[in-house]
Amino acid sequence: MTGTLDPGTVDRLCRRALGRPVQVVDVHRLRGGTKKGVLRVRTSGGPPVVIYVWHEDEDWWHGSEDPAADVEPFAAANGLELLTGAHDLLTGIGVRVPRILHAERRGAGLEVDCAVVEDVTGGSLQELLASDPGAAVPVLAELRDHLGRMATTTAPRWGKVLRTGSPAGPQLPFHEVVAHRARRHLTAAAAREPRLAAAADRVETLLLDRVAAVGAREGAAYGLVHGELGPDHVLLDATGRPVLVDLEGLMWADVEWEHAFLDLRFGEHYARLRLPGLDSARLELHRLALHLSLVEGPLRLVAQGFPDAGFMVEIAEHNLGKVLADVAG
Question: What residue ranges do the domains of the chain occupy?
Fold first, then answer.
């Protein structure tokens, strides 16, 4: 049930997080994580909590041959240090995230890195959009406010939140890094998918055309970007406020990278999240790069035996259709 955490360790972590003796009543593994284990723990004598677990056995990407594993700032968006850094930065600018109740690194008998966080119990924005879109309108408005705060919190360099300013030398513009990563994803995905292989030359030409259309960004200022902010990564607290989760990929980047992903995931509801002043050429480049990533990554997980293979195939098929439609017309 607890995977890489034994029951005694779960009990001890909960006691430390809540600051009082509690008894673990139930441990339930939540579905969907590919980089860390996520356990919901009910206790007697205290509120429910969630435990994040980082370990090689919990990471489906670990050991897989990512063709762009060395491309910063996208590499290694996983780990306790990235969570705590993102938590502190977002909390500091008024963006609601789960409170970290206790964090502990592996060592002294603990074989994993883990964090005990607030259990956000109001369901997801994805569920609310499906069941009652009208009730989701004020949630989307507050989420847009969060996105505005993130976009206007800037740094002169792109990178993970804990790596800003390193390396010290010159950086390529972020959009050129995106294009370099996308070309690698195209090559790797085409090796697994014949339909993409047949269109690979046209896709690369389109990619290069979109890079060429992007101009220099005035001031070279990069905003805070979550990176995977779908409606399933926005939970609702007891008062109905949006709470951002899966924070480890937080980075300084083109704000358009965030909005290309938001548009892809929120569909008809994205109009309520759009911010003014976005660069349309950057959006078009980032959309194509995201589609290629979302073909390559899911196909790679399927190839190494990911248990929810059907879901990954659906993601790959949807995004492959978008890429092929782009080059067809």
Answer: 7-118, 125-328
